[in-house]
Description:
This protein is α/β, with parallel strands linked by helices and about 250 residues long. The chain is built from 6 helices and 10 strands; from the N terminus they run βββαβααβαββββαβα.
Amino acid sequence: MTDIRPARSPATTLAVITARSGSRDIPGKNIRPLGGRPLIEYTIEAASRCRRLTDTIVSTDSEEIADIARRAGATVPFLRPGHLAQDNTPHLPVIQHALTEMERLRDTQYDLVVTLQPTSPFRLPEDIDGTIGILLETGADSAVSVCEVAAAAHPIKAKRLDGSLLVPYCVPEPEGIRRQELPPAYKRSGAVYASRRTLVMGAGRFYGDRIAAYVVPRERSIDIDMPLDWIMAEFMVTQLRTNGFPF
């Protein structure tokens, strides 16, 4: 994919690394060591090497996470209120809170906001810059990083039960279709979400109607949610380092 980054973006962009303290499936997930480093460090480092970010902060409700983030070089200008750090808290109010606080502290108004979750440790700076670039280039409401879906999880293979009968969930599967014949399908990788401020603060939406996509390889798209994801990430970090991955 062509790298469309200029030396400096004309848009002012706030990156928010969201790292609340609670995690039911993997306790302490955001600061748990992965490959010998707290998980959040991977995201802090990637953001620090981006060209298109004006400011980057960590939004957390935890003093412990804040201390670890600061030691890794991150800015943590405030602690997130507890009511915005619950299991069922959506990202929109968290990002609205971060924008409001940072615009008050900086006495400015950003054009774009980028959401980065520590649970995607293998994203690269060019994935962040590239997603912002696609948003600016297309004029879309938002842009997200996506990766191609593996053949085994292709939507054409998804089924549902109609009583005892197996029927297509959404797309009929031609009988006998081979893996090589499946049309490309993509999913959000979870690594980068870029939104216009007017969408987030004005319309109260996260994605909008027009969403641009920045395609990244699957090896940079792991999203650690369950214990099995962590096991896979531990294996991957060793392999990626062996192959010269830049972290």
